[in-house]
Amino acid sequence: MKQFAVIGDPVAHSLSPNLHQEVYQQLGLDASFEKIHVKPENLHSFMSSNELNGFNVTIPHKQSVIPFLDELDVAAKTIGAVNCVHNGKGYNTDWVGFVKAMETNEIKLEGKNCTILGAGGAARAIAYAFIQSNVKSVSIVNRSQENADQLSHWIQNNSDMPVNTQTPEHFNTLAREHLIINCTPVGMFPHINALPMTKDDLSKNQILIDTIYNPIETEWCKRGKKQGAKVVGGLDMFIAQGLASLEIWFSGNITDKVDISALRAVLKQRLI
């Protein structure tokens, strides 16, 4: 039996085992998946002793795991973060999950003006996806101007894309025809009434995307939907990045063989 896991600190909240075990069951794969709580001070010990066939990496190890790896794929090296490991090589499937989720929801990224709320690790993976998808421009909205500038410089170093930064209080000056993605934890359970931007900033011409999947539909997405905006929650991205990891570990097309509707139903039950 092949053995896989997700490591993090904390990790008890992770839905990854539910996702992977459902796929194993659907496809008849002889494999197991567990959650392993690895504190930062124990990462070296874990990396030198684990005998897993592959594992996912979540906060706070996405950067700190890199020195323990033999090789990185192009995306992981460029983004500077790893969320999937196989045979000593680090991969980043977070950006793939975003692109696949946009395809699932029939959202074309190419040529769009896009706004990223936040400037952390998740934002960088999304920015990489924007670069790969040839979006028209990127605006970064973040409380810390320093962090926004760092992400802006990173984008400029890796593309010719026009980039600007703004603070949240100036966000309502942005053009209405924007694709806006929330890469902050604002609105995540248990703080489900918090908003990454105000209701007045929402319009029917916008596409709102939230990386949060718990709750399934955030308050921000609910308000956007009421204004007529197209909204996409984080569950599709979570599923797509997980399937991308499976395709690395099993060296084949997994996504087309999986009943995505059944998989979504299983995960939704865990979130209700």
Topology:
Elements: E1 2-8, H1 16-27, E2 31-37, H2 43-49, E3 54-57, E4 71-72, H3 74-79, E5 84-86, E6 89-91, H4 94-104, E7 113-117, H5 121-132, E8 137-141, H6 145-158, E9 163-166, E10 179-182, E11 207-210, H7 219-226, E12 230-232, H8 235-250, H9 260-271
Parallel strand pairs: 1-2, 1-3, 4-6, 7-8, 7-10, 8-9, 10-11, 11-12
Antiparallel strand pairs: 3-5, 5-6
Helix pairs in contact: 1-9, 4-5, 4-8, 5-6
Strand content: 15-25%
The CATH topology name of the largest domain reads: Rossmann fold
N-to-C CA distance: 31 Å
Instruction: Kindly provide the radius of gyration, computed on alpha-carbon positions and rounded to a whole number of angstroms.
Output: 18 Å
SSE order, as H and E?
EHEHEEHEEHEHEHEEEHEHH
Q: Please name the fourth-level CATH homologous superfamily of the largest domain.
A: NAD(P)-binding Rossmann-like Domain
Portion of residues in helices?
A: 25-40%
Descriptive key words:
9 helices, single chain, Rossmann fold, 272 residues, six-stranded parallel sheet, six-stranded mixed sheet
Written account of the structure:
By secondary structure, the chain is α/β, with parallel strands linked by helices. The protein is built from nine helices and twelve strands. Helix content is 36%, strand content 19%. It has two domains: 2-92 and 236-271, Rossmann fold (3-Layer(aba) Sandwich), CATH 3.40.50; 97-233, NAD(P)-binding Rossmann-like Domain (Rossmann fold). The chain has helices spanning 16-27, 43-49, 74-79, 94-104, 121-132, 145-158, 219-226, 235-250, 260-271, and strands at 2-8, 31-37, 54-57, 71-72, 84-86, 89-91, 113-117, 137-141, 163-166, 179-182, 207-210, 230-232. A six-stranded mixed beta sheet has the order 2-1-3-5-6-4. Strands 9-8-7-10-11-12 form a six-stranded parallel beta sheet, sandwiched between helices.
